[in-house]
Amino acid sequence: MVTQYGIKLVVHLLTNQFGNIVAKVCESLLRRGPLTLQLIVRFTELTPQQVKSSLLILIQHNCVQAFSLEQQDGLQDGPKANTQYLALFNNILHRMRFSKFLKIVSGEFGECKELLKGLLQHGRLTLKQMVEREREKSSKKDGNCEDIVQENILKLLSARYVERCPIHEPVLATPVKDDTAKRRGAKSSKRNEESETIEQRVLGAAAPMDAQRFSIITNTGSNVSRETSVGEKRKYDALELDRESAAEEEEIVLLRANFEEFMCRLRHKACIENVRTRLDDGASIVLRAMLEAVRSLEKRVKTEKSVPLSLNTIFEEVMNSEEGRGMTLDRVRASLVQLGCSSSARGSDESYSIDLKKIVELAQNDEVESIVLKRFGRNAYKMFRLLSKTGCLVETEKISDVTFVEKKEAPKMLFKLWSDGYLHMEKITVAAGRQSQFLLWKVNKPSLQEHVLDEMFHAALNLSQRVAYEREKDKELINLPADKQVMSLEKRHEQRKNVALVLESSLRELDDAVMLFHDFEEPSLLKLDL
Asked: Where is region (Disordered) located (predicted)?
């Protein structure tokens, strides 16, 4: 779900970090979809060299993915590849969350934080480059530095926080449209193709297999060609950042941060916090234990239901946590009922799975209701909550009666909610004796979620611009002559620090809400046809 203010927000992020030219190239891709180099030059009116340099920067920082689309050329025997570039909206947006990613790794592997920081800062690095960065910081010239870096990288790979970079330019086959292929193709495969977006197809084709995705070379020397996977040794072909750098013959393995794994962890955290607030500590402890038990099996950020676990397995996992050691088996079973876990019989054991999608939806409802309460007041909140729970059209007078809102005040509040995009309205005219008109109201959740998300992107853009403005203002004040400075440098620094803390804290909290609506649930994306 990419909204207009969402595009403006990520363009602002790129402008602050890489400048106007790079941001302009990416904005063209975000607004127009995949483009060739020639089309980007045409739409941006930049020079080919400027566009090429911008694309290399964006690819280096995982903001753009190149791919080729096979096209059958009647004048040639073989297929003709056409290189295009696709902007990755989510990866750009994740740049706001780097501090959250670092906090996760710092909590699990404190000594690995600097390695991840380097990957987030530079986008993609080889093991050799990471070793060199560590030597510059620690001033270690012996081989011990290389061993430490490799050991820490293996920890991050085993936890799936770091991964190999995707294939530079995967080739997507153009769907064949002849009658023979249509007869051969199954209905299920047709549905899958229609449901996949161009971004999903490209990223799926570019992603290496897990055995290769989470592996690392054992030595940074040019004479060594062995590799160690997490758990076994495998051979792997050279990876390239771009075609121009392929002249080097030695194998290059580029590593980057695995945003998907970090988003899984943040989604788990959001679900646990919502359950703690909505239910109690016992339910949140059981949920955390279940999520930890299936962590290695969860492959997608937006998994709807967790892998089924037996009651004994859940109880053992609860006992492994310090806060869960005081819980009994009956208390764990009661918490599973609270969580609404669906149970099934597997042999002699009961197994339970948690509906994560439902927890996310409940958290979204809480967030929207909180916005309505703060913006429109308690009476509007009561009417909105009634319509949200009812899920169907309700007449104005009935809403007023159920919520105990005055009949004169209710229509005004409902119109206000409708005009601001929070309600859907329908007019019905009844001709019985004399003509009467009724207004019916309901909450249209898909359109409401898109509207709320766009408002959140707008607010995040305003906060980001304010943070950038405060930084520039501080630079101007520091450069003022001493005779024109109103307050001391110490006071000005303390004032700037306090303002920055408030703004950055507000932006982090707002981003938590953005993730709830954009990253934690499958959005209704607009599919781009090739």
From this structure: 176-199
**Domain co-membership, 163 together with 173:** no
pLDDT band at 270 (very low <50, low <70, confident <90, very high): very high
442 to each of 102, 290, 396, 451, how far by Cα in Å?
42, 36, 10, 15
- Is pLDDT above 90 for 369? yes
CA dist., res. 247 & res. 302, Å (int):
40
Residues 346 and 302 in one domain: yes
CA-only gyration radius of the chain, Å: 27
Domain count for the chain? 5
Residues 6+ apart with CB under 8 A from 207: 166, 167, 213
Domain end residue (candidates: 443, 460, 478): 443
Four-point Cα dihedral 42, 46, 47, 52, nearest 10: -90
Amino acid identity of residue 15, one-letter, is T
Query: Residue 134: pLDDT above 90?
Result: no
State residue 35's pLDDT score: 93
List the one residue out of 419, 420, 425 whose CA is nearest residue 441.
425
The residues, any chain, with a CB within 8 Å of residue 394's CB and separated by 6 or more, are: 386, 387, 440, 441, 442
pLDDT at residue 219, as a whole number: 44
* pLDDT over 50 at 186, yes or no: no
For the record, the structure tokens of 217 come out as 């070379």
Query: Can you tell me which residue has the tokens 């409708």?
Result: 418
State which of 193, 226, 257 marks the end of a domain: 257
Give the residue carrying structure tokens 């397995």.
Answer: 313
In a shared domain, residues 160 and 304: no
Q: Which domain holds residue 491?
A: 452-518
Q: Is residue 523 domain-resident? A: no
Name the amino acid, one letter, at 377: G
Specify whether 429 is located in the same domain as 405: yes
**What pTM value is reported for the model?**
0.82
Pick from 173, 181, 239: nearest CA to 202: 173
The answer to whether residues 79 and 146 belong to one domain is no
pLDDT (0 to 100) of residue 103: 94
**Residue 74 sits in the same domain as residue 175:** yes
Give me the long-range contacts of 406-411 (CB less than 8 A, separation at least 24): 409/379, 410/379, 410/383, 411/439
Q: Are residue 246 and residue 282 in the same domain, yes or no? A: no
**Position 489 pLDDT exceeds 70:** no
Q: For 286-325, how does the pLDDT look when each residue is reduced to its tens digit (9 = 90+)?
A: 999 999 888 877 777 778 888 888 888 888 888 988 888 8
Helix%, strand%, coil% for the chain, nearest 5: 60, 15, 25
* Under 8 Å between Cβ of 43 and 63: no
What is the rounded distance in angstroms from the CA atom of residue 179 to the CA atom of residue 176? Answer: 9
Kindly report, residue by residue over 54-91, the tens digit of the pLDDT.
Answer: 999 999 999 999 999 876 554 445 445 588 999 999 99
**Statement to judge: residues 10 and 54 lie in one domain:** yes
Identity at 183, one-letter amino acid code: R
CA atoms within 13 A on the CB side of 62: 27
Asked if residue 318 belongs to a domain, the reply is yes
